[in-house]
TrEMBL record:
Record-annotated active site: 268
Pathway(s) of this molecule: Nucleotide-sugar biosynthesis; UDP-alpha-D-glucuronate biosynthesis; UDP-alpha-D-glucuronate from UDP-alpha-D-glucose: step 1/1
Organism: Nesterenkonia salmonea
Residue ranges annotated for the UDP-glucose/GDP-mannose dehydrogenase C-terminal domain, each copy included: 324-425
Family: Belongs to the UDP-glucose/GDP-mannose dehydrogenase family.
Tagged with keyword NAD: yes
Gene3D superfamilies: Cytochrome c1, transmembrane anchor, C-terminal (1.20.5.100), NAD(P)-binding Rossmann-like Domain (3.40.50.720)
Residues that bind NAD(+): 34, 39, 90, 126, 160, 271, 338
Binding-site residues for substrate, renumbered to this chain: 157-160, 212, 257-261, 265, 331
Name of protein: UDP-glucose 6-dehydrogenase
Length: 447
């Protein structure tokens, strides 16, 4: 097996930019390639179009050391890199639910044509099962004569907000290959993690592709599972957080991803689940993943429930009423508002005529692109001043530590919906707040 020194990363979005910087951190010479010249220019300066802790610093460090650079020219890497990672997007197709494979297919074809040196192409994008086998054929049909090019599949499990950490110290590494040599190339790439005994799962293409979507589907299922029980405790009483703690102590279940609330969102879970359902339907297996329809429905019902609670608290009339929405990113430590439950709640209330005041530590600039008519305040104080209702929709630290004293003299009426179950009910009720949570039964006549 040849020694790996030079690595290219095709596609410099969230996944690609992170992967390129981390490969440089692991000691490789790295070139990130993207078709967007503006992106390339700003990346070289360490300016990212998204918020990811630690990543701008890592990029600047390695651009400065000369170990990392960015280009729009694939020919630049075709004669140079030993390993090419494909990290382009697989968005939801417009007007459909499947994954749009245009970018992966185009990147693979153009890259393969540019390759003039024996090398390995490694797919990292999240793709419908069967893609790697199809691309492997495409590579053989497209490659230049006399050059050895093969394909491996190596899915990525990074979380937003922890992208660098998840890439450098992953929970496990999964590689789908058809030749032992290709696996050995990837063992070199990930030698540092392997040295720490990171589990190494060597498998075929299909398994590698499916591990990714199965992990996402399982996580979504865990969240919707506890949210389904939240619907029950909302009706009969009981404490959803205690329930999650109690079942979570069973090590077979585990406590993580059992936080009931307004549900999951983001650029991955919702889209990947829909793409999985679409793919299995194409395979004639729609029945196998039908439970995911239910998971999706439970998830969407939670947003509607948060809005319904707001209507209940405001006597079914929200028109012109000032409502403070705290948190519109899909989760804390991110500026991402894609498929965000909090933003959805804010938009629904706005569309119903409420005077919605949104405060979010990071996400307002992105939310304003989508809903420019909603008011985004630069501080929490401004959002809550004069509010008749406060809704906590994303559990940022500064909201988790809120106390009634912070808000008492600012709001017009003491009403709060904790849609992430992070506040202590007793603290707020003692301070004469009408306090509601998703998953909590309301005392008779309290609303
Ligand atoms: C997810 C996967 O975790 C990651 O492995 C994959 O590579 C990409 O998709 P990410 O989109 O960054 O990562 O978000 P994640 O941290 O998984 O959270 C997803 C959503 O679930 C968020 O909206 C979060 O608020 C919600 N969530 C999470 C809950 O509602 N309850 C929980 O207990 C956990």
């Amino acid at each position: 097996t040849a020694t790996v020194e030079n690595v290219s990363v095709i596609g410099t979005g969230y996944l690609g930019a992170t992967h390129a910087a981390c490969m440089a951190e692991l000691g490789f010479n790295v070139v990130g390639v993207d078709i967007d010249p503006e992106k390339i220019a700003s990346l070289s300066a360490g300016d990212l179009p998204f918020h990811e802790p630690g990543l701008p610093e890592l990029i600047r460090k390695h651009v400065q050391s000369g170990q990392l650079r960015f280009t729009t020219d694939l020919n630049d890497v075709g004669a140079w890199a030993d390993v090419h990672f494909i990290a382009v997007g697989t968005p939801q197709v417009k007007g459909g639910t499947g994954a749009d494979m245009t970018y992966v297919d185009a990147a693979t074809t153009t890259l393969t044509q540019a390759i003039t040196k024996d090398s390995l192409i490694v797919g990292k994008s999240t793709v419908p099962v069967g893609t790697a086998a199809r691309l492997a054929d495409l590579v053989q049909d497209t490659k230049n004569p006399g050059v050895n090019v093969s394909l491996a599949w190596n899915p990525e499990f990074l979380r937003e907000g922890f992208a660098v950490e998840d890439t450098i110290t992953p929970d496990r590494l999964v590689v789908g290959t058809t030749h032992e040599d290709d696996e050995n190339v990837l063992r070199q790439v990930y030698a540092e993690a392997l040295g720490r005994d990171t589990p190494w799962i060597s498998t075929d293409y299909q398994t590698a592709e499916l591990v990714k979507v199965a992990a996402n589907a399982f996580l979504a299922t865990k969240i919707s599972f506890i949210n389904a029980f939240a619907e029950v405790t909302e009706t009969v009483g009981g404490d959803i957080t205690t329930l999650a703690d109690a079942i979570g102590h069973d090590t077979r279940i585990g406590r993580k991803f059992l936080n009931a609330g307004v549900g999951f969102g983001g650029g991955c879970l919702p889209k990947d689940i829909r793409a999985l359902q679409t793919r299995v339907a194409e395979l004639g297996l729609d029945h196998s993943m039908r439970f995911l329809d239910e998971m999706d429905q439970i998830n969407l019902r939670r947003r509607k429930k948060a809005v319904a609670l707001a209507f209940d608290l405001l006597s079914q009339d929200v028109i012109g009423k000032k409502i403070a929405v705290l948190g519109i990113t899909f989760k804390p430590l991110s500026d991402d508002v894609r498929d965000s439950p909090g933003l959805d709640v804010a938009a629904r209330l706005f569309n119903a005529g409420a005077d919605v005041q949104v405060y979010d530590p990071q996400g307002s600039h992105n939310a304003a692109k989508r809903y420019p008519r909603i008011t985004y305040t630069p501080t929490l104080d401004e959002a809550v001043t004069g509010a008749e209702l406060v809704i906590l929709t994303t559990e940022w630290d500064e909201f988790k530590t809120l106390t009634p004293e912070n808000l008492n003299n600012k709001v017009t009426t003491r009403r709060i919906i904790d849609a992430r179950n992070v506040l202590n009910p007793t603290t707020w009720e003692t301070a004469n707040w009408t306090f509601t949570q998703l998953g909590r039964k309301q005392p008779e006549g309290s609303i």
